[in-house]
Structures are given as structure tokens and as C-alpha cells.
Amino acid sequence: MIKFEQVSKTYPGGQRALSKVNFHVEPGEMAFLTGHSGAGKSTILKLISLMERPTVGRVLINGHDLSVIKRRQIAYIRRDIGMIFQSHQLLMDKSVFDNVALPLVIEGFTHRETSKRVHAALEMVGLRDKAKNLPIMLSGGEQQRVGIARAVVNKPPLLLADEPTGNLDPKLSMEIVRLFEDFNQAGVSVFIATHDLGLIARMKYRTLTLKNGQMITDGLNDDTSGEWS
Ligand code: ADP
Ligand code: ADP
């Protein structure tokens, strides 16, 4: 589903963000990506979502080699990826329904199909009765779940999350991760970047750890010591 082969990234200006990173995430797998601030987590997510290109090496997503992708194919590849952000980036003057419907409207789905899918997505995240609300009327945890519904409404095979629990307390964070587990059990690959070591420690998932742009560990997280280095 995700494959990095000897990937290095140096930003214009000379800042080296990744050095010879190798890993892969299998279809149907759920894994965490962690590391200190500046370790390169966001850069990895940006390479996967085609917001940045590697300086050296290859990134493959769902069998597509991103190094040979044409500009006009980018939207097509991105359709396979549901993105979830820390700041959920909802449109505050639009209803919950309209926020979740956005990706389908962009793709030209019919009203009937859009409505069906939006309600199914809201049902999955437990917000079926909030469709008509404005996001401002919801709690932080609920807003994050709207962001998740929007990310899955297209039924992408891969969910990417960047600090999805950054603004939430431990209990709500756990609920969000449980939601990711539900999607994972339905067959979706899930890749979560987080520096919330407490959260990772409570889950028994594969954890990839970055340090100064290098992948230093990759394995089942059984270490609850809460140290990166
Ligand atoms: P993390 O997500 O783990 O905090 P990042 O991937 O954001 O790490 O950053 C890795 C390194 O690359 C940092 O040194 C950061 O300052 C640098 N960096 C990130 N984005 C850019 C950019 N657009 N231009 C220049 N340097 C960047
Ligand atoms: P995070 O810590 O959540 O990864 P940051 O706050 O470090 O994010 O970065 C926010 C944005 O600024 C990102 O788009 C990142 O690529 C960019 N950025 C980070 N470091 C630099 C840098 N040194 N120069 C230019 N842009 C940067």
C-alpha cells in the first residue's frame, strides 16, 4: 500500500528532512509513525500525498510509482487517500453534511448517492443526528470525527492521519483511534503520524520511529517507557 525505497528529502534551502528511509505498509495494515518534532513525520505524509517529491529514492502508493506520475494524474492518486489533520480544516459556515459531502461534490456524484454516502459516513463516526449542525456547535472531538467522516466518504483504501489527536484529551484520543481501528477492520490501511507516545503505548500496533530524518525503529510497540531515543 505504501512503499518507501531509499527515500531522501532535502528542501530547497538545504534543510535535510529525510535520509535513506525504507519501509512499507501492507494493504489492510494499521501502523503509527512517531518521532520528535522536526524528525520528518510531516515530510513522509507529504511525500505520500504528493504534496512534496523525494529528492532521491522512490515512493510507491497502491502500486503507483509516484516518481513517474504526471501532474494531471495527481488528483487520481489522491482519490485513494483519505487525509485527516490535527486542525480538522472544516468549513465553519457549512453544515456537517456539506463538509462531509465536499469530496463527493468535487467528484460529481449525484445528490442521491452523495446523501447516501454522507449519512453512512456520519453513522460510522456516530454523528448521524448532527448532519444539519454547523461545526461550531460541536465539541472538539465531534469536529475531529466530522473530519474523519469527510476523509472516508470516498471509501479510500488508505487513511493518512497527521497528529489526529493533537488537540484532544486522552479519553477522546482513544475514541478517535478506536474509530481508526473500525475502519482498519473493514479493510482500510491506516497510517497515523503522532508524537503522542502515551496513546501509542496503549495500543499494540506496529510503530515506525524517525529520528533526525532516519528510520531508527520499526516494530510492534511493546515498549511503554515513553522514549524516542
Ligand atoms: P515533523 O513532522 O516530524 O515535525 P517535518 O517533516 O515537518 O518533521 O520536518 C523535518 C525537517 O524538515 C525539519 O527540520 C523542518 O524544519 C524541515 N522542513 C519541513 N518542511 C520544510 C519546508 N517546507 N521547507 C524547509 N524545511 C522544511
Ligand atoms: P509539524 O510540526 O506539525 O510537522 P510545523 O509547524 O513544523 O508542522 O510546520 C508547519 C508547516 O511549515 C509545514 O507545512 C512545514 O512543511 C513547513 N515548515 C516547517 N519547517 C519549515 C522550514 N524550516 N522552512 C519552511 N517551511 C517549514
TrEMBL record:
CC per GO annotation: plasma membrane
Gene3D superfamilies according to UniProt: P-loop containing nucleotide triphosphate hydrolases (3.40.50.300)
Major place of residence: membrane
Domain of life per record: Bacteria
Signal peptide as annotated in the record: none
MF-aspect GO terms: ATP binding; ATP hydrolysis activity; transmembrane transporter activity
Membrane-protein topology: Peripheral membrane protein
Domain ABC transporter: 2-228
Subunit structure: Homodimer. Forms a membrane-associated complex with FtsX.
PANTHER family (UniProt xref): CELL DIVISION ATP-BINDING PROTEIN FTSE (PTHR24220:SF470), IMPORT ATP-BINDING PROTEIN (PTHR24220)
Job of this protein: Part of the ABC transporter FtsEX involved in cellular division. Important for assembly or stability of the septal ring.
Family per record: Belongs to the ABC transporter superfamily.
Identification of the protein by name: Cell division ATP-binding protein FtsE
Organism: Alteromonas pelagimontana
